[in-house]
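FAQ: What does a ligand-bound record look like?

Like this one, built around (2S)-2-hydroxybutanedioic acid:
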Amino acid sequence: MSVPVKRVIVSGGAGNIAYSLLFRIASGDLLGPNQAIALYILDIPQAIDGLEGVRMELEDCAFPLLKDIRVGTDPEILFQDVDYALLVGAKPRGPGMERKDLLMENAKIFIEHGKAMNNVATEDVKVLVVGNPCNTNCLIAMHHAPRIDRKNFMSMTRLDQNRAMSLLAQKANADVCDVSQVAIWGNHSATQVPDFVNAKIRGHSTLELIPDRHWLETDFIKTVQQRGAAIIKARGKSSAASAANAVIDSVRCLHEETPEDDWFSLGVCSDGNPYGIAEDLIFSFPCRSRGEGDYEIVPDIPWDSFLKEKIQLTEKELLEEKALIEEMLAKKV
Ligand code: NAD
Ligand code: LMR
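The answer part, i.e. the structure of the complex:
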């Protein structure tokens, strides 16, 4: 039985991450082996040759699921009727920078793309923001697209979750499949809180299998928080294949029923519930899906005093980023 084609837009289509992501989407990794796909690939006019190159390579793969490829530089055309908007296009940070140093420069992109989605995307488009600082960029896009449900705006913290899972597995001498219930709370930044308190390894408390709370509170958290910077230092460029992989994981989680004893991390709009995080921030929470493209925030996960203090810090950082943006918009910079 044939199912309607799903339209997926990737911005930043001539960039580093897109070069991994587009081919995985087209091969069926994003929406499954039975879902035909149209890929809309957006970049800026200076990148048009790169976009054409990507188009040629996609054609040369002869992917059976890929029914249409459109490349271009006009968001008002390419966001038309899309089902998924994967917003990767943004400047990456260089060595020594924090992601929030990109805020002023990248904000303009998310204002433009938010407006374009508001004008021409389907009402139920699902938006995943990857371009940094992704939480606040997502907030900006959401504010410029009031026609689209706030619930549909998400930012990517899955890469942080995957990093945390790998590290815990290595330390416990376990398989990564044995690690579950790993939440990232807050911002995709150096204040993010990878939650080892509630994480499980082989169904047991992480603290039972890694009885070294000092390591968990220091090296573990710091390594996850600083992994992006470590990759930039090593590669001279920011993470790309692992970021693309995390995009795939983030979207797939929405379409697969989350096992009862697990959750996944996603930056979503806070309405103050159920953890008392300030409203109108894109904050990473542990989420679950019923497998219908939706999610809900998992309630009642306990915070000990250590987690609580760290979570307050990441919330404070997001409030500061939001205040900066409000100031910028008030000045119409
Ligand atoms: P890149 O520089 O290789 O590619 C970015 C692309 O975006 C370029 O081709 C550029 O021309 C394009 N672009 C710029 N302005 C645009 C606009 N207005 N519309 C459409 N496209 C535009 O960068 P990259 O390595 O692919 O990284 C992209 C972003 O993703 C960066 O901000 C990076 O920091 C971020 N990132 C986030 C995560 C995460 O976990 N959330 C992980 C890795 C990277
Ligand atoms: C990452 O976490 O790898 C990305 O956000 C890129 C970066 O700037 O660290």
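Follow-up question: can I read anything off the structure? Yes, for example: The CA atoms of residues 165 and 179 lie 6 Å apart.
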